[in-house]
Design brief:
The protein is of the alpha/beta class and 194 residues long. It has a single domain, classed as TIM Barrel (Alpha-Beta Barrel), CATH 3.20.20. Helix content is 22%, strand content 22%. The protein has an eight-stranded mixed sheet. The longest helix has 14 residues. The radius of gyration is 16 Å and the shape is globular. The two termini are 14 Å apart. The model has no long low-confidence stretch (mean pLDDT 95). Homodimer. Keywords: 4Fe-4S, Iron, Iron-sulfur, Lyase, Magnesium, Metal-binding, Queuosine biosynthesis, S-adenosyl-L-methionine. It catalyses: 6-carboxy-5,6,7,8-tetrahydropterin + H(+) = 7-carboxy-7-carbaguanine + NH4(+).
Amino acid sequence: MEAFYTLQGEGAHSGRAAYFIRLGGCDVGCHWCDVKESWDVNAHPHLSIDQIVTEAAAHPGRMAVVTGGEPLMHDLTHLTQALQAAGFKTNIETSGVCEAVTGSWDWICFSPKKFKKPNPAIYEQAHELKVIIYNRSDFAFAESFVPYLRPDCRLFLQTEWSRTKEMLPLIVEYVKSNPQWQVSLQTHKYMDIP
């Protein structure tokens, strides 16, 4: 769908320079999604892996973040191999709903959504759990995954952007009471960068 060089604004790598590769296609259907234009897999240009990697390599940062939509709708084996061969660390953000995790990943951010159940195969592979908090019930939803994750998986709670004013104070109190969690803010939106 698009690719751009910016800062990672969320989660464990927040503040680091990153080349984002946003792939078209998603069948999860989050009503609050901020990139609904990514959902139709056929609405976007098809680029070769060589084109993607060449454009990424034109920038000095060597962290590539593959996102979507739902990026695992695609076989990402060759893309991640080419990125790593070009010196990139490969990160992905996925809802974990797809049949398999394809590709070679240095970091997997698992961001489950209530709208479609994840494939349990993602649990042992996730380095980071990032749950979007839209309603109070989302805290229990977030906790429901913790017993299945690796002990070193980092745990993040992040407000849905339009609900920040209402939900951020609740997240702060929750993290104070449950310090295994951390707050993730969409810092790129505060900085007004893509």
